[in-house]
Amino acid sequence: MNKLVAWFVKVTGFLPQLIFFKKKIYYQNKKVQGRKIKGGAIVASNHNSLLDFALLMFVFMQRDMYTLVAEVMFQKNVFLTWLLKRIGCIRVDRYKADTNSLNIAIKKLRKGKVVEIFPEGRLPLKHEKGLLPFKTGAVHLALKSNTPIIPVYLDGKYGKKQNAGVMIGEPIDVCKMYNPLKTEKENVDELTEYLKNTIKALGEKLNEAKEKK
């Protein structure tokens, strides 16, 4: 990451994002977890659009985030590849046994950095409703680095006269939830499903909160 480039993007994009996203941020418990992130943490969110990454950049603006990004985004053009690297994106080759990206992310987390991940792994197709099956990467990262997962739900309502809704949940400590009587695979699968259900529940809370406004 080039901090100068990362902050240039944030500073120049601050006003435009206020106008475009018109974001409304809600909290499961703001006293426990607000927009300020202390220490190393994993931000895990559902995935609606390529704009999710940009929105989260400004939701948690005080911290630099290292985002796991699919290889396809690094294949668009030379400028985009250059920019993604400079703002801290970590390339993930989804169709290979890519342990390198996870190792890079773990090192960042152990140094107290923030890593962002979209556990669904891809954007939904037009006919797909609800959350896609979650991949296990977020839980693996949390277990290997002993860092909490901050679950976030985005409603994906971008542009026009819509307000982008964000619900920030309480941190999940998967290390404390790990059951030594079960295999690692059983633990990872169960914790991943727990994360998915948590983010799904945050979506329901977000809908309820927006209806009350």
Q: What do these coordinates show?
A:
The chain has 213 residues and is α/β, with parallel strands linked by helices. It has helices spanning 3-21, 51-59, 78-86, 100-110, 137-145, 174-177, 184-212, and strands at 24-27, 41-45, 65-70, 90-92, 114-117, 149-154, 165-168. The chain has a seven-stranded mixed β-sheet with strand order 1-7-6-2-5-3-4, sandwiched between helices. Helix 3 (78-86) links the parallel strand 3 and strand 4. Helix 4 crosses helix 5. The radius of gyration is 17 Å and the shape is globular. The mean pLDDT is 94.
Please write out the topology.
Elements: H1 3-21, E1 24-27, E2 41-45, H2 51-59, E3 65-70, H3 78-86, E4 90-92, H4 100-110, E5 114-117, H5 137-145, E6 149-154, E7 165-168, H6 174-177, H7 184-212
Parallel strand pairs: 1-7, 2-5, 2-6, 3-4, 3-5
Antiparallel strand pairs: 6-7
Largest sheet, in brief, is: 7 strands, mixed
| Radius of gyration, CA atoms, in whole angstroms | 17 Å
Give the oligomer, counting copies of the same chain as homo and different chains as hetero.
single chain
Query: What's the total helix number?
Result: 7
